[in-house]
Amino acid sequence: MALPSNPTDFTLAEAREAVSSKKISSRELTGAFVKAVETARPLNAFVTETSDRALDMAVASDARIAKGDIRPLEGLPLAIKDLFCTKGVRTTAGSNILSNFVPPYESTVSQNLWDAGAVMLGKTNMDEFAMGSSNETSYFGPVTSPWRARASNAKMVPGGSSGGSAASVAANLCLAATGTDTGGSIRQPAAVSGTVGIKPTYGRCSRWGIVAFASSLDQAGPMTRTVRDAAILLKAMASVDPKDSTSVDMPVPDYEAGLEAGVKGLRIGIPKEYRVDGAPPEIDALWSQGAEWLKAQGAEVVEVSLPHTKYALPTYYIVAPAEASSNLARYDGVRYGHRAKNARDIIDLYEKSRGEGFGSEVKRRILIGTYVLSSGYYDAYYLRAQKLRTLIARDFTQAFQKCDVLLTPATPGPAFAIGEKTADPVSMYLNDVFTVTVNLAGLPGLAVPAGLTAGGLPLGLQLIGKAFDETTVLRVGRAVETAANFTAKPERWWRAA
After folding, report:
1. pLDDT on residue 62
2. Gap between the Cα atoms of 132 and 124, Å rounded
3. Domain-by-domain residue ranges, the chain?
4. Residue-wise DSSP of 228-270
């Protein structure tokens, strides 16, 4: 394997081979990424940089490699979404209320990565408490996408809530990054940033040590440059965990092993309800192209129906805020995080701490969630939403009797300019129209970059699989990736910024 001129151009799989075979040291590789992160500060992709820790971890990895003690991710530099608690390293969830929080413990997923030999470059910026589709709700300011439309200097959003992770991967600031997905927060930013992101089945990765948004929907997953890299990273992240009762005790497959099996004989479902009025023609064209790519490789394409899809977005925006209002009740200015000054009494302390600590989007969702759980409205809203959630999950069960994997668009359009949709929450929420169903049903979903708009911005396709069948989802994703041959990269304009 020929080494790239810049070590930051490695994929995760290439870097794994180069480091383990001593073609490049982890120290040299990590140093290149540390410099890249520093150079890319205009993107605001990182909340906390941990360069010293990264270099120390890299030196330790090189010592292990010298002894022949090589773990699966030995010496490979990653970025961690700032929703994962990292022992001794500030963890903010993108919020003022946690802006001074340094956890005394490590999340299970990040611990799995360190146990596999990975190196931590830092914590990536994100929408506050993962509430957003553009990474504009962060207390630390918006992340700017490394992508720009042709002939335009407008700053674009990287998607959200895992926007810092998506931007970091797209801009080659890390080999890969972790993300979390509650309603599309891995897949949507991956799609609009030209990267790969997979939300695994609910329960595949432990949620312990991840700051909670909506506990029945949240799931951690990898954000990478290639489908192979996603398979490698998911294998390391996933595990059963006695500290998380929702993690599932099932063997974690070697996802990488089955990637090249092809799609011959598989049935690919096209859900007719995913054709949305007003979607850009480029989205439908890419979707049709994706189906043709898979058909050309031997798959059978069949139409399926998911009749309750039209209720998915309103269902999600009842269930998720309801759970958020409960989860965020713990932030009271007493035990940890931001505490307001000059409070008259305990009630004043609660009110001032939460008022100062939470941003407007988080307050909006807490209010919605509290309302739908309140006496007299619980049955009318929350209980009805839960019944609809059951019907949405049943739709998928019935569809999978006719097919192995579903192919859909990942987003209703490309990235938009920063500030373009902040005054219209409903328009912002519509960015998740193709992704929320997967969270409500607890299924695995994969976003793969598949093309560019006429303006040169990335578009992605989404693959949805049966529960705990990430192997097939990744295998079909690899087939789409091969056919799409997406090689576009953003121009590194931020180096001159």
Report:
1. 98
2. 15
3. 25-263+413-496
4. HHHHHHHHHH----TT-TTS-------GGGGGGG--TT-EEEE
Is residue 224 helix, strand or coil? strand
What is the token pair recorded at 97? Answer: 């209320």
Determine which one of 185, 193, 325, 353 is catalytic. Answer: 185
pLDDT tens, residue by residue, 67-81? 999 999 999 999 999
Give residue 1's pLDDT: 64
Q: What is the largest CA-CA distance in the chain?
A: 70
DSSP string, 404-451: SEEEEESSSS---BTTSSTT-HHHHHGGGTTTHHHHHHT--EEEEEEE
Fold (CATH) for 25-263+413-496? Amidase signature (AS) enzymes (3.90.1300)
- Single out the catalytic residue among 26, 107, 161, 168: 161
CA distances, 35 to each of 121, 297, 401 (Å): 11, 42, 50
Residues 6+ away with beta carbon under 8 Å from 419: 136
Over residues 358-387, mean pLDDT: 94
Bridge partners, residue 319, by sequence:
none
Model confidence at 3: pLDDT above 80? no
Residue that the structure tokens 């190196």 belong to: 119
pLDDT top residue among 430 and 199: 199
Q: Clarify whether 152 is annotated catalytic.
A: no
CA angle 99, 370, 333 (to 5 degrees): 30
Cβ pair 54, 79 in contact under 8 A: no
Question: Is 161 an active-site residue?
Answer: yes
Helical H segments across 122-195, by residue range: 163-170, 187-192
Mean pLDDT of 441-469: 97
Full-model pTM: 0.96
Under a CB-based contact definition with an 8 Å cutoff, are residues 26 and 61 in contact? yes
Residue 295 has pLDDT above 80, yes or no: yes
Are 102 and 342 a contacting pair, CB within 8 Å? Answer: no
Tokens of 171: 């801009």
Q: What is the average pLDDT across 16-39?
A: 97
21 as an active site residue: the answer is no
Residue 79 pLDDT: 98
How many angstroms separate the CA atoms of 216 and 316, rounded?
A: 11
Query: Lowest-pLDDT range, 235-244, 261-270, 425-434?
Result: 425-434
- Sequence-distant (6+) residues with CB within 8 A of 208 are 107, 108, 241, 243, 244, 247
Residue type, 133: S
User: What is the pLDDT at residue 437?
Assistant: 96
User: d(Cα 110, Cα 114) in Å, to the nearest integer?
Assistant: 6
Catalytic member of 81, 199, 352, 421:
81
